[in-house]
Structures are given as C-alpha cells and as structure tokens.
Amino acid sequence: MATVFGRRSLPLSAEHRFFAVAAVALVAVTFIGFAPSYYFSRFTGAPALEPIVHLHGIVFTGWILLYAGQTGLVSMGRSDLHRVVGPVGTVLAVAVVALGFTVAVLTAHVVPKAGKINPPIIFPFTAITIFGLLFAAAFIYRRKLQHHKRLMLMATVSLATTPLARIGKMIGGPLSPPLMGMLFTDLFILVLVAFDVRTRGRIHPATAIGGGLFVLSQPLRIAMSQWPAWQAVAASLGAR
C-alpha cells in the first residue's frame, strides 16, 4: 500500500509527516461523515441497515484503517511488515469495489421507498470506479515507490467522496452534497500537488495522472447523469 519510499526520496521526516497527516485526515473524515448514520446509529435514531450494508461499512472501515496502519508501519521503519500485510489490502480493495457497486444499487432501490432523496447513482459508481483504477495502477507500480504511495493515497481519497459529501450536508452550503464531496476531495488533491511542488519542484507524474482523473471525471459524471443512455442504464438498475 501507500507511503513506501526509496533512498533517493525526500527527507524521511517530511515524507512521514505528510502521508501520516493525510492518513489521519482520511480516518477522521470517514468517522465524522458516517458517525450519524452508521457508527453512532444506535444513538441518532438512524434507520436500520441491511446486513450487506453493514458488511460494506465493515469493509470500507477496514480499508481506511488498514491504509492508516500501513502508513504507520512505514513511518516506524517496518517496511517488512508493510509488505507482508499488503496482500490483505488487495483482498479488501476487491471487496470494496464489489460491495461498493452492490450497495449503490441497493441504496438506489431502498432510499426512494423510504421517502428520501438519494444522489444519482452515477456519483458512487464513479467514485468506486476511480478507486479501482487507481488501486490497480498502484498495484502495477508497487515497485516504483513514489508512484505507488501517491496512487494509493488518491485511491483512498476517492473513497472519501461519500463521507465528505455527508460532511458537506452537515455544514450546509449553496451546493448539493455530491458537489461538496467532490470539491472536498479536490482539496486533498491540491494539497498533494502543493506538497510535490514544494518538495520536488514539480508535480509528480502519478499525482498529475491521478489528479487529472479526478478533475476530468467530475464534470463528466454530472454530464453523464443527464445522458439518455445513462438514464436508461440507471433506470434498469431501479435508480436514477
């Protein structure tokens, strides 16, 4: 997973500090975003969840915690354990993708029946797709350490789109929760860009490619939600 570095990388303290803070921030936004509806649901009166949604929550939480744990292992100089634990991340990533699509479709069926408004299914579908693409790239480039850690960070940021959207809804604002979620993920990407420029003098290629994927996908997913072809696909799934 992310945050493995080579001897020619930046000073270790700078590398550790940046990726450790990013990991903690992702854990925090995940907890805050899902606290009312999942983690503290017993105390907030949130509706009961289907077993598969609970499984999705467990797997999603497991990924976020594993990412933070892997970052911590490398920060402690335990790259050997980081590599041993790596296959667990691969299994979790596959589960995240499979359950992400499944729960997105399930939610599209259940939420409207409960009289609530659910974001168009294109938003969770796109976030999961980006996660899968970036994770696959990170796996392919696992021996190119500077590429690997950036791709893995951005993959995890993609998963944070949903809790960030929920945080956006909590704080309110002129934009819809899905748009707020996308803008908040952009902040993570901008911070990574700033880190690259400050420490390397240029944007790392992995950051440019992953960040470009984020930026290009955002207007695309909004446009796609209005395409008749996509609306037909969504309708066949019982969604929008």
Overview of this structure, please?
The chain starts with 11 loop residues before the first helix and ends with a helix. With 240 residues, it is mostly helical. 79% of the residues lie in helices and 0% in strands. It has one domain (12-236). The chain has helices at residues 12-39, 41-44, 51-75, 79-113, 122-140, 145-159, 161-171, 177-200, 205-224, 228-236. The longest helix has 35 residues, at 79-113. It has 10 helices and no strands. Helix 5 packs antiparallel against helix 9 (205-224).
Sheet-strand content, in percent, reads: under 5%
Largest beta sheet, briefly? none
Q: Return the domain count.
A: 1
What gross morphology would you assign? globular
Low-confidence stretches: 2-11, 111-117
End-to-end Cα distance, whole Å, is 34 Å
Based on CA atoms alone, the radius of gyration comes out at 18 Å
Helix content: over 70%
Structural class: mainly alpha
User: How many distinct helices?
Assistant: 10
Order of helices and strands: HHHHHHHHHH
Calculate the mean pLDDT score and round it. Answer: 84
Number of strands: 0
